[in-house]
Amino acid sequence: MAIRRRSEIIRSNPIDDGLKSFCVALNSSKLGISATPNIINQSDSEELKNIVVDLTVALQKLPAARLLPSVTGRGTLRSDLLRLGSSVDSDDFSIERIIPLLKAVLSAESDEVIWDNVYTAVAESTPPPRPVSSTQ
């Protein structure tokens, strides 16, 4: 049921040109690189971190991010993206987990593929839910 609902939300709220401004900004950046999957090989880790932050902000703005459920089951996917964006500067952040998402966006994959990659990326950065206290 949850997967069907997720597919309905994605279908009802297409990305369309929602990530176009991210790609345009990337193309016009001072990095002198084009917004293609090759960007990963052309950028150093600090540049990639900045790209990831920009991507998470762009994804947060999409209507589906406000409607899709969080990985934890509490809140929306947008809150997971906020956590992901803020975790980029931490010492334990691994840029490798974002590479499939970045490639999917830059290759203009289907909405379903992009959102699946978003879920994978945020699942790896989201701590497990805390147990509820048994004291009342």
Secondary structure blueprint with pairings:
Elements: H1 2-12, H2 20-27, H3 39-42, H4 45-60, H5 63-67, H6 77-87, H7 99-106, H8 111-125
Compute the separation of the termini in Å. Answer: 33 Å
Helix content: 55-70%
Q: Note the run of SSEs as H and E.
A: HHHHHHHH
The main pleated sheet reads as: none
- Ranges where pLDDT stays below 50 over 5 or more residues in a row are none
Average residue pLDDT: 82
Q: Quote the beta fraction.
A: under 5%
Structural class, by secondary structure, is mainly alpha
Number of extended strands:
0
Shape designation:
globular
Please count the helical segments: 8
The overall number of domains is: 1
Spatial extent as radius of gyration:
16 Å
Outline the structure in words:
The model has no long low-confidence stretch (mean pLDDT 82). The chain is globular and about 40 Å long. It has one domain. With 136 residues, the chain is an all-alpha fold. The protein has eight helices and no strands. 23% of the residues are buried. The longest helix is centred in the middle third of the chain and has 16 residues, at 45-60.
Offer a quick outline of the entry:
The protein is mainly alpha-helical and 136 residues long.
